[in-house]
């Protein structure tokens, strides 16, 4: 039996690429979608050589909402699994003073991903099968002074995924929310992250393939984050507002 | 800045680990840092791939670029692991022509150390399967070198420990194999003399290696289990194996706990373990079919085995002695180790073939490798082993070294001075330095 293709949205990211490798290793054809998709040619060749699966490149801009329908329609085959690894951290300081910068963070982490997943959701719903995977963030579990614009966007995306899951639960379409915690990627390069709390992109990819296979709903990549966020969420607001974490 | 060391967790340096994502970024880092050294998967035992203050992690240069299914020529970036090459191409009937004792090394690391495998006596070191290598020099220029083109750069780069520049890409030839299985023959040798006799009459075997008991003394000095191997053909396999010759049953890997109590390793436990290992091996001696992982990479199944030596880390001693002084030299080395009672379980003896390259480790003769937990006594013992090696005309493997002195290296290996001189003249010296090259004046 030939396996269904896996679509990676935001394929250039370290997590997106790790997910592509994980699915290709299982024998799935891979569709890589990103801006300037043409220069992902080396990644495409590498995936094909390593895993012997067909890989295709697709021009995709998460912020170009008007094109999302056309993008989905132009895919050579509707994927069985779509993973959205689109994200942009931005600079919190900049987001505080520049509405344009804040909008970019909000749109990249919430509006764009929600839009493309809506488009795919309808097609998956019509077909009656498929899995949508959204990579959100523990930053969305509670807004903190250090990155609340990014956190707010991720909170929105987490709520969106929850609603989408609810909507599609009886339609044969499954939705996975992935909360990676710290991950050693280009986005976090140069940050001083604690080793024990920091996952490698390959771990995130493994968590995603497992969660998809087992139809899990919400996945914390390193289980310790479930506990950390439980504690952070349960701090009374009166106390929380004076903390710096 | 962070703590950085090699596989032996000794010595530990404070270094900045930079992971460039493009050649342009790499050029910038070479230009802007006082000196750099490239690091692959950190499997060199000591400080070969530790650059102070700046180390270049090559993990983002990890793409396979092309493969010719007619000739078996693979072009890949230097950060690709040999294990990835095996995973990708063994199912299609190809295997790297030379593999060291772990598959968790990068292509760049294998070239830089010019690693050798169990077939060195027949097929030579890693450089013998290289068609070409591309190296970024101190000025940021990328040069392709091969046995035909920029020959001098090629010769110094294979075995040059990354000190000729940053290895970016290479073309390597894979060999055709008809299964993932090895036809293994285990021959017990009661002592060193017997082990050498077995190696000498097994020159025709494709692969050969011996586990040696470094703690046995007296008449049992150097008792060994010599393991010969051939790639198995379909006729060697059982019906089930032959039906799917590249499918290897998966045994999960184990992981050593982060801190293994180092008191568990002492001369009594190791001596008992070695004796049990030898007698078990001797009883099961003979022919068997083994999967390639167990034959080539037995330790890889134990992830993080370097931690069994505890927090202080360990050092490996590896030398090669020329053929005509190998017997007395090995005897002297083993007597010193056995008398000190410090040998480890992980000790290897291997016959190497002739090698003609300016700075690679191998030479025709015998190589002995073994690990020691780092402590005052073992460091002292290793200095004694250094002296014995030099007295017998031997030399040392830089990929394993973490503690040799500059004088030891230069006394053992006159090529070191030539290499250092070449680096000065060509302008490589200021740009590419490792903690090891600084320690050894390379």
Largest interface: A-B, 10 and 12 residues
Q: Distance between the terminal alpha carbons of chain A, to the nearest Å? A: 50 Å
Determine the fraction of residues in helical runs of chain B and give it as a percent range.
Answer: 25-40%
Estimate the mean pLDDT confidence of chain B.
93
CATH C-level name of chain A: Alpha Beta
In terms of DSSP E residues, the strand content of chain A is 15-25%
The amount of beta strand of chain B, in percent, is: 25-35%
Computed over alpha carbons, the radius of gyration of chain A is 18 Å
Q: What is the H/E string of chain A?
A: EHEHEHEHHEHEEEHEHH
Order of strands across the main sheet of chain B: 15-11-13-12-18-19-17-20
By CATH, the architecture of the largest domain in chain B is named 3-Layer(aba) Sandwich
End-to-end Cα distance of chain B = 25 Å
Mean pLDDT of chain A: 95
Number of strands of chain A: 9
Uncertain segments of chain A: none
* SSE class of chain A: alpha/beta
Count of discrete structural domains of chain A: 1
CATH topology name of the largest domain in chain B, in short, is Vanillyl-alcohol Oxidase, Chain A, domain 3
The CATH class label of the largest domain in chain B is Alpha Beta
